[in-house]
Input
Amino acid sequence: MNAPSIEAVNLSKRYGSFPALSNLNLKIEGSKCVGFLGPNGAGKTTTLKIFTDMIRASEGRALIKGERRKTIEDAVAEVKMDEWLDKKVGKFSKGMKQRINIAAALLSDPEVVLLDEPTTGLDPRGMSEVRDIVKSLKKRNRLIFMSSHLLNEVQDICDEVAMIDHGKLLVYDTLSNVTTRFSSDGGNVVEIEFSRDIDDQAVNRNIGTLTNVNSAERIDSRRVRIRFSGGAQIQERLLSDIATMKIGMISFHSPTSALEDTYLNLIKDTL
Output
């Protein structure tokens, strides 16, 4: 089976003299989720509308692979709404309605799914439900291209990220590569709390020497801040390595988003 793909080839869209898109060239292939980022007016929705034939491009091409048929029951089950199949949609919550919208998009069993800010307007539960659905979609040999203003959402769901500003592509790469190249810390940050005091020697000897760790420093006697290069898989391995040291790790959290840092560094100003 060929990998799903989308491709923008010299894609441009003008509204009068205003260039909403300017020669956008972007090719994405494979079964994964790609975050599409940029400020308001950057061209995200314009790009997605061109790919879905809602508007015409002024110049260039928007290419998507073909689709095959799917039953309503299959589509509804995939978004975990099969038990509600015989219920009226009008009584559903916003999150449930969004899941039904996604099911409708899956009816033709597409290899490529385009989502424009899919969690906008939802409460925390609805957002979590839709995010879980999006994560599950990419497991079935699908390419998900999703715009969002929620950087923590993109970092949680997506494997790669493309950023545009003023209609022009700034970067397209894996999340880990983008954050490593462009964030001020040169990577991600995680803070770890321990059940007992930990000294500088233990931090430097045990944690600071781990692969992909850029720096490790004590915040106080029981908390350590680690800066590391890589994405979620690297963080998972680092935390597993620290847990096996049996030095009392009890919790961890990310104090800041490396993707947010990268976004602010790349997108300096907007119209």
Remarks:
- The longest strand covers residues 18-29.
- The chain has a mean pLDDT of 84.
- The longest helix spans residues 124-137.
- Residues 72 and 107 are 6 Å apart (CA to CA).
